[in-house]
Amino acid sequence: MHPRSLILLAVLAASACGPSSTVDEGTGVIQELDTSEAGITAFVREGRYKDWLAEPGVHETRAPHGSKVRVYFNDTAVQSLRAGNATHPVGSILVKELYESDGKTLRGHALDVKIAEGTGKDTWLFYEGFGPEYASNYYGRGHSTCHGCHASGRDYVTTALP
Ligand code: HEC
């Protein structure tokens, strides 16, 4: 096995245990997104997804224990969803803003990025973090906390294009 694969396996084993802060799955830069945990944290904090296609407004989440949300889609995800693809191409990125019940105060972000062609949870990198520190985030390829609910979507995407 290539040494880089061994490192990746070690990181996967470590990240499967739960939230952590500076993990890097080693998937590099995808569509200008540095997919390390620190890279995604910077990306969402700086709102670098804000000019993407978005749901028209903040709304109640369909997920339990959530509050209010708004989902954003990058161009790759938009084109793939529009085409009705069964699996989305590498570089599809979706961001969910997580709000307090007032629907105005931003608490954090969830993000999925498609990192490998094909099917299955391991073709996605999942991230969720809360401000102001974004110190104990969920981060990982096929993350165990995330893929279950998302398996009911089309290639793990559950939100329809606005
Ligand atoms: C209890 C079920 C559930 C779990 C667990 C879950 N999600 Fe979701 N997720 C949803 C639902 C439902 C939506 C649709 C938007 C909404 O109603 O909140 C969603 C939407 C999203 C979106 C917007 C794109 C899409 O697929 O609709 C992202 C990004 C996302 N979730 C990331 C995550 C991450 C990262 C985790 C793990 C930390 C996670 N989710 C865990 C239910 C879940």
List all distinct small molecules, including ions and cofactors, that are bound in this structure: heme C
Number of beta-strand segments: 9
Structural class: alpha+beta
Shape: globular
Under CATH at level 1, the class stands as: Alpha Beta
Question: How do the SSEs run, as a string of H and E?
Answer: HEEHEEEHEEEEH
Number of domains: 1
CATH-scheme architecture: 3-Layer(bba) Sandwich
How much of the sequence lies in strands comes to 25-35%
Q: Could you say what the CATH topology is called?
A: Chalcone isomerase
From the N-terminal CA to the C-terminal CA, the straight-line distance is: 44 Å
What Rg, in angstroms, do the CA atoms define? Answer: 15 Å
Instruction: Provide a count of the helices.
Output: 4
Bin the helical content. Answer: 10-25%
Low-confidence stretches: 7-18
Main beta sheet, described? 7 strands, antiparallel
Overall mean pLDDT: 90
Protein name: Cytochrome P460
Pfam family, one: Cytochrome_P460
Domain Cytochrome P460: 49-157
InterPro entries: Cytochrome_P460 (IPR032033), Cytochrome_P460_sp (IPR038142)
Q: Could you list some keywords that capture this structure?
A:
Chalcone isomerase; two-stranded antiparallel ribbon; globular; alpha+beta; 162 residues; binds heme C
Question: Would you write up a description of this structure?
Answer:
InterPro entries: Cytochrome_P460, Cytochrome_P460_sp. It comes from Archangium gephyra. Residues 49-157 form the Cytochrome P460 domain. Pfam families: Cytochrome_P460. The chain is 22% helix and 25% strand. The protein has 162 residues and is of the alpha+beta class. It has a single domain (3-150), classed as Chalcone isomerase, CATH 3.50.70. Strands 3, 4, 5, 6, 7, 8 and 9 form a seven-stranded antiparallel β-sheet that branches. It has a two-stranded antiparallel ribbon with strand order 1-2. The radius of gyration is 15 Å and the shape is globular. The chain starts with a helix and ends in a 12-residue tail after the last helix. It binds heme C.
